[in-house]
Amino acid sequence: MNIELTTRCPLRCPQCYCDLNQGKDIAKEVALKYIKQAARLKIPFINLSGGETLVYPFLLELLAAIRAEGLNSAIAISGWGFDATKLEELKQAGVDEIYVSLNGSTSEVNAKSRAGYELAINALKILQIDQQVKYYINWVARNDNVEDFPNLVSLAKENGAKGVVILESKPDADNALQAVLSKENFLKLAHYLKQPAHQELPIMVEPCFSPMRAYIYNAYLWNRNTGVNKGCGAGRNAMAVDVDGNLIPCRHLLYPERYDNIQDYWWNSTVLDKLRSFEDNQGEPCRSCYLTKHCLSCRAVADKVEEDLFSGNNYCPVRGMDQ
User: Fold this and answer.
1) pLDDT (average), residues 73-79
2) 16 lies in a domain?
3) Whether residue 22 has pLDDT greater than 80
4) Are 315 and 305 in contact (CB under 8 A)?
5) Looking at 9-13, 192-196, 237-241, 267-271, which range is the least confident one?
6) How many domains does one find in the chain?
């Protein structure tokens, strides 16, 4: 489960998908209510997101509540407002994992999509010195940074990160996809991920980036990209709470519904029911793709760019490929 803490952020990243003009924070009582419900429902993991999570005034209280309920927590940070004192506060509150957002090994590459390169590097160095919290780099795969990815992996190793998480590019605040991966760069990244040379540092492809997972896990007789984590998990194995306290399928799928109870939402939401029927209603080019049984592409791309939850992914580099 994801809880959107705030839409506030001091940075202005070119790729940002948040509406930063609203300047809202979720009510602490609302967030705590859903944390308690998550514990009762045995939801094991809660991600706290923004905006910039560190600007939220009750972050430490929520982390402590998650820990008290026996759940695991994660936050993603840009590096803004992060220092050794803040890290100590986060540790005392019980944070389990910290994800540092970084899209390039150099300021020049990173600046094509993100701001705050030096802030992110500083955060990594502070975490490396401390070595008491698991920390990772979140990297968004884009056409303008793929060639830099091996350098990004080297940077992660040098700074002691526990791994790199590859995220699929999502529509920005104007519902546009930026720097879409070309077929050539998709295959270049896939080839790198298939090589055993980098395996001393874990590289995880998020389920949302289902085309990549389906492609690299495909073998002659079988495909390892199966189960609930094979692709878009909205309404299947995940949901979110937005900054207004509404329940939504995913932080990128803005279909707010009012339910006081997560369980009622999970079983009665017509939006979630629709998302769960994608396989029976999917459009082209996904329907005819040779990977269709092992890929469930991001529904936020379909919804925001194509304005159709059942649309196939017309930006997918795999489309038109032969097995």
Assistant:
1) 97
2) yes
3) no
4) yes
5) 9-13
6) 1
